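hey can u check if this looks right to u? its 100 residues, i copy pasted from the old doc so theres a chance i mangled smth
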Amino acid sequence: MASEKKTYDFLIAGVPYKLRTSHDDATVQELVDFVNNKMNQAMSVTKYGSFQNAAVLTALNVAEELILLKRKAHRELEKIEEKALKLSMDLENSKLNKSV
C-alpha cells in the first residue's frame, strides 16, 4: 500500500516551491536543507550571484556526489562478490577434500 502524499511549501535560496511527496517531514526538511546549503555555497562563488548559474553549479555538485558514491558502492559490491566467490570455492574445495 502506497504512503499518502503530502504537499510541502518551502524556500530554496529565497524562491518558493511546492513539493508533493510521500516522504516524512524530517526527510523533506533534510532534502530542503541539503539543497539550500548547496545553493548558498554556489551563490557565494557565482559571479554576480546569478541564481541560474548557482542552480547549475548546485546540480553539478550534487551529481558529482551521487556519481562518486555510486562508484564507491559499485567497488564495494565487487569486493563483496569476489569474497563470496572465494568463500564458495573454498567451501567446494573443502567438501572435495573431505570426500577423497
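The two ends are 54 Å apart (CA to CA).
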